[in-house]
Amino acid sequence: MATINATNSLNTTMENTVSDIKDARKLKVSTQSEEHTNNMILGRLPNDDSIYSSVIESYRPLARPYVDAHAKNKFLTEAEVALFGIGRLEWLVSSTYSELSDKFTESELLTLMNCIIGGPLSIQQIDALPSLILENYGIEVDDYESTPFAPLVNKICRLTPLQRLALVDAAERIFHDLGRTDSLQSSFTHYGIKLLSNK
Questions:
Q1: Are 79 and 69 in contact (CB under 8 A)?
Q2: Could you give the CA distance from residue 66 to residue 89 in angstroms, rounded to a whole number?
Q3: Torsion sign, CA atoms 45, 51, 54, 60
Q4: Structural domain boundaries of the chain?
Q5: H helix runs in 104-191, sequence order
Q6: Read out DSSP for 8-68?
Q7: Are 81 and 67 in contact (CB under 8 A)?
Q8: How confident is the model over 22-43, as a mean pLDDT?
Q9: 108 burial type by CB count under 10 A (0-12 exposed, 13-18 middle, 19+ buried)
Q10: End-to-end CA distance of the chain
Q11: Using one digit for the tens of pLDDT, what is the confidence trace for 14-30?
């Protein structure tokens, strides 16, 4: 019974996910445009969005030691340290995208993207990505092997932390481009991630 319900849930999700993602993106862009002026009047940064504030705050314990260590160089400001830190992250992530080629189908990545519509994931969520997927679709951990989600979950479990981060990072970027690109497959190909054919 759990397998039937999971299959029905997956089929329904595959039909609706792209539309949902596009709608969510439009809503987010509209909301950000309306709030930008208010944020500036209040003296806050434009991206100080309460929707994401807890996620962004969760990165502070990781970012602070990095900034503090490099800012000991008196010729560097914290902003400059943050900038080259982001550049190094981009280099790492971009170098890892190709390792994700020929691992996932378009349907599997749609399933994943349906779990990250809400915005950027925290490190804790990325680390627990398999559990996040199962929770999102109402699947118990003890039952997942008998559901259509098992192949995706097992693949993600086998990824290194850097590969998992790169996968989520690419999916989050692609979320913002849906509606401006031809297909999900072409979007991932843009980042050097070749998808498997759906079976």
A1: no
A2: 12
A3: negative
A4: 2-190
A5: 106-113, 123-127, 129-136, 150-157, 161-175, 184-190
A6: HHHHHHHHHHHHHHHHHHHHHHHHHHHHHHHHHHTT--TT--TTTHHHHHHTHHHHHHHHH
A7: yes
A8: 45
A9: buried
A10: 23
A11: 555 556 555 555 554 44
